[in-house]
Amino acid sequence: VAEVKLRDDQYTLDHMRAFGMYNYLHLDSWYQDNVYYIDQFGRVMNLSVTLIVFNEELGSPFIIVHSVSFVKSDKHSVAVLLLRVEKDELDTKGSGFHITLEWVTFVEMNKGDEHRYEISKRRVLEGKSVPHYAAIEPNGDGLMIISYKPFKFVQEEEEILEENDDKKTDEKKDPLYYWQQTEDDLTITVHIPQDVTKDDIKVQFSPDNICVTLKDQPALMEGKLYSSVDHESCTWIIKENKSLEIFLIKKNEGPRWPELIVGDTKGEFIMDSSQCAEISESLMHLTSEVMGNMTKNDRRGCYSLED
Hints:
There is one protein chain. This protein is α+β, with helices and mostly antiparallel strands. It is built from 4 helices and 18 strands. It has helices at 13-20, 157-172, 273-293, 296-300, and strands spanning 26-27, 34-38, 44-48, 63-72, 75-87, 97-111, 114-127, 133-136, 143-146, 152-154, 177-181, 185-191, 201-205, 209-214, 221-224, 235-238, 243-249, 267-269. It has a 5-stranded antiparallel β-sheet with strand order 4-5-6-7-10, with no helix packed on it. Strands 16-17-12-11-18 form a 5-stranded mixed β-sheet, with no helix packed on it. Strand 13 (201-205) and strand 14 (209-214) form a beta hairpin. The chain is elongated and about 85 Å long. It starts with 12 loop residues before the first helix and ends in a 7-residue tail after the last helix.
């Protein structure tokens, strides 16, 4: 759509109201689903639109900053971004107001002969300045915001409680296995029940994957390894303290693995004292070189960001 841009001599409030608040779409008086607009080449264009009738209380007054229409999981969805200026009772030093952006997603619901839209998700962000630019990504999965001051998501009370419950649950869980590594190999230790015998254990090696099962239970460890191993040289044993030890031989010697199984969080990496000293020494060497090259002004400009 052609954008009406003001010239340097058009700077009054009347100019802004006349051109800046101009409605680019004009409804066809004879066909209610058709609109007219002028494109950037000066052509008069006709467009057929679909009106979605939706009725929902969305709270205090707002303006629609942006909206997108997309299809996901075979359902039509519409995401809109609403902007509000709201009173901030806790702000005693600033303007006393804050800006909120509410990201609302409507999803098409077909129940029998009834065809309507319902809110599937509502997310709120808060900031201290009106954004220069705010838009929803075309697929509805994220936001793009340009603002003088940052915006942060505001968690609902229920979400905070659920998050805390999840953290408590995670804290109670012990690692299912522990692993160590050298430049040449990796050692995995898995604690197994007292009644488990060698015949109950099944360990499968491949160049890029590992699978460990006990009896007929679901796999204890399974997935793609961070890097390739020499699977024909990999072995495992049962130790006297009823622990299963698995030895993996790295195909590419030297590089350290940041994780054992890609995406798996059930294990815990253990670093021995010699590795700690080696890494600490390399970090000290790196830090001393960087600090040695910094000027006084460079040091003054350094700062840290915290969540």
